[in-house]
Design brief:
The structure is a homodimer.
Chain A: E1 6-10, H1 13-25, E2 31-35, E3 41-43, E4 46-48, H2 50-59, H3 77-84, H4 95-109, H5 114-124, E5 130-133, E6 140-144, E7 149-151, H6 152-158, E8 167-171, H7 182-186, E9 193-196, H8 201-209, H9 214-220, E10 225-228, E11 231-232, E12 235-236, H10 241-247, H11 254-261, E13 267-271, E14 285-288, H12 295-310
Parallel strand pairs in A: 1-2, 1-9, 2-5, 9-10, 10-13, 13-14
Antiparallel strand pairs in A: 3-4, 6-7, 6-8, 11-12
Helix pairs in contact in A: 1-2, 1-12
């Protein structure tokens, strides 16, 4: 683990794109991704880790380029038959994806940790970057809406992020500890920067930062912490980030993202479309193109962000 | 259930062929299949009922014609990925097949009975025949070999029926009762015959006959009981029937099959290739072609067997 130069905190689709860019521009084994597991849930008896799997598939070159989640060259026979037999089909599981969930569930049931399982999976799929769940303990993101408090997937997939969000909490966080490898990566002698990927700050990054000991380890690392804003022109590329910010009474702007991460941040990367709202962030800001459409976009944003971080000092 | 005219006791592939023939020649809803569940097992956390599913797929016109088990137009993405991730692949599960196991497992876990689940499944798949597990209670076929006592699938699939069989037992049988619908079918006022399909007498039919109350219900039905021998020229069409008979010190002949079922039988259907060994069966024997290759073969054997049974009286 001592070779880790960059730690990336990430959620699913948007964060995974930057993680892939980072993996592309770094030598093998120098990137460690710390991934949100607050979205994990048990469905059809299977332990599903949507963000870990999105990052895994993306870094392994196996992700479906059209939807950002799931596997390329996937088949959907299982879902078709399940629907025919009256089963629950609101969470779409491809046939190959299902195998990963089944094998992970089997291993969890015989006592292996999630971090050990993911280490083996990424190794089998030829991924040189570390892929670390934020914790091996269950932490579950709960979304408080006017009508009910919902487990994340109920809110996000079944209800398509429709209900207004009044608050978000992380069940189990108080008793959780960082997964094996997380503190080691943050203490790597080679560490150059910690990047907060352009994932939803409230739903994808806050669960990670809520693991006791994590924020302190970030501060203690001595490495600059740089966030890439998930907003482009006040909107998320994908997902409900801007909608949730409005519902929580927060302006959907880079300034609000900077305020949210507070003194943890040493720098912020924002899109050129948000240039006018960058004033008042109170920390170094890099304005660039953050939209990642092509593989080249991902590598360029990764390189640009790394160069920006290299010019920053940790304020701590 | 009062419309049931024919009850068929059956295991997997061979028995399912005759069941399909019977369904073809009978009006809809007049056939009830009582199916072996001694081969059921839990694999990858899923409840799998190989014989029930083979009969279901066969009667629904969904079975894979090339191998006799599993589904036609199946995909195998799950198995491919599972192998890549180091999972257990000795039991082959197609993607569509898997959906049936997952949905059955979910329903069992919320307290539905196997018979209720299969009734819903066959209804959804448009199967008019009754499809009854022999019992809703777990009965597990155990194969005693020189080295170990093996659960059926370990013996049959993983070890490919290799070890010599010294004995067979049915764990849980003493405490089991016939599944909902089984005794009703055998008491149907319209009942004309009970057929024992050409399945392995020791591994597929004995578990059914071992459910307390089943043999008495057969005898009390007043309908003639006719078995179709699974042997052709002293060999099974598929599977280890003849091998097991030799290992148990039993001659692989129709006579031995007749002796095995004993006074339960009123008639035996054998293949022309076994004509010479038909002497000494001690009951009416019909010699015909029992090999079922085409759909027509299945219907013809079904019709021939029903006609033979119609000419027999129950001895009881």
């Amino acid at each position: 683990m001592s070779g880790v130069e960059i730690v990336a905190l990430t959620g699913g689709v948007g964060g995974a794109k930057l993680a892939l860019g980072l993996q592309t521009v770094l030598p093998p084994g120098r990137l460690a991704c710390v991934v949100n597991t607050g979205d994990d849930f048990v469905h059809l008896g299977l332990h599903i880790s949507p963000d870990l799997d999105t990052v895994l598939y993306t870094l392994a070159g196996l992700s479906d380029p059209s939807q950002g989640w799931g596997r390329r060259d996937e088949t959907w026979t299982f879902m078709g038959v399940l629907g025919q037999l009256g089963g629950e089909t609101w969470f779409r599981l491809g046939d190959g994806d299902l195998a990963l969930h089944a094998e992970r569930t089997r291993r969890l049931e015989i006592g292996q940790t999630l971090s050990a399982i993911m280490r083996d999976f990424r190794s089998r799929l030829g991924v040189a970057s570390e892929l670390l769940p934020m914790s091996d303990a269950p932490v579950r993101t709960m979304v408080h809406t006017p009508a009910a408090t919902l487990p994340f997937q109920e809110y996000f997939v079944r209800l398509r992020a429709g209900p207004a969000v009044r608050g978000i909490s992380f069940a189990g966080a108080a008793d959780a500890t960082p997964a094996a490898g997380v503190l080691e990566a943050l203490a790597s002698p080679a560490l150059r920067a910690i990047l907060i990927c352009p994932s939803n700050p409230y739903l994808s990054i806050d669960p990670i930062l809520g693991i006791p000991g994590l924020k302190n380890a970030l501060r203690a690392s001595g490495a600059p912490v740089v966030a890439v804003s998930p907003l482009i022109g006040g909107q998320a590329v994908k997902g409900p980030t801007a909608k949730i910010m409005r519902e929580l009474g927060i302006e959907a702007s880079p300034r609000a993202v900077a305020l949210h991460y507070g003194d943890l941040l040493n720098g912020l990367v924002i899109d050129a479309a948000d240039r006018v709202s960058a004033d008042g962030c109170g920390l170094p800001v890099l304005v660039t193109r953050t939209l990642m459409t092509s593989e080249a976009d991902k590598a360029v944003l990764a390189r640009t962000t790394l160069d920006f971080a290299a010019g920053l000092k940790s304020r701590r």
